[in-house]
Amino acid sequence: MPALLDRARPILDRAFSLLDLTQPVLLLAVRLWGYQYQTDGWGKLTHHDKVTDFFTELGIPQPGLNAWFVGGLEFAGGWLLLLGLFSRPIALVLAVNMLVAWLSVPDDRATFLNAFGDPDAFIASDPFFYLLVALIVLCFGPGRISLDALLARWFGPGLPGRS
Fold first, then answer.
1. Domain assignment of residue 63, yes or no
2. How many CA within 13 A on the CB side of residue 73?
3. Are 44 and 67 contacting, i.e. CB atoms less than 8 angstroms apart?
4. Dihedral, CA atoms, 102, 108, 114, 116, nearest 10 degrees?
């Protein structure tokens, strides 16, 4: 059995090396969800009165100010994700934003708190994919196809948000 593993190791190493080439493309595909973030943010900014009313119903303090903040965050953050610029810092802020959104809406909060009891409802919940995208970019960075990677090549690896 060990001899078989020794013969299989170079083949597996080569296969995994080829799979490593797909990582930047996958991370770019994940970051494309930034378009949805910026679209939702723009909707919040252009329908500020409706968002303020909704935030008021939820009991969110300073609903008008928070509506501007969340709309601006999602709009600007979506563009930053798309471009792969300051990716990890914005992914952190967007992840916190999505957790707050999930826990602020009573129906969503119940779904979040019952994630293991009803995983289908958890995954189907509106904030799920937004949070997933933010967490993937936060954990793995934006990938090599990003402005963060380009800036790191130009100016060195000490930049925040680099992959």
1. yes
2. 18
3. yes
4. -70
Per-residue tokens: 73: 């965050």
This prediction has a pTM of 0.83
**Residue 99 dihedral angles phi and psi, to the nearest 5°:** -65, -40
Residue 16 lies in a domain: no
Tell me how many degrees the CA angle 115-120-122 measures, rounded to the nearest 5: 40
59 and 39 Cβ atoms separated by less than 8 Å:
no
Residue 53 lies in a domain: yes
What's the structural domain count of the chain? 1
Give me the residue label for tokens 């799920």.
Answer: 128
Q: Quote the CA–CA distance of 140 and 85 in Å, as a whole number.
A: 14
- pLDDT means per 10 residues, the chain with 163 residues, are 76 81 91 95 97 95 96 97 96 96 86 85 89 96 93 74 48
Distance of alpha carbon 151 from alpha carbon 153, whole angstroms: 5
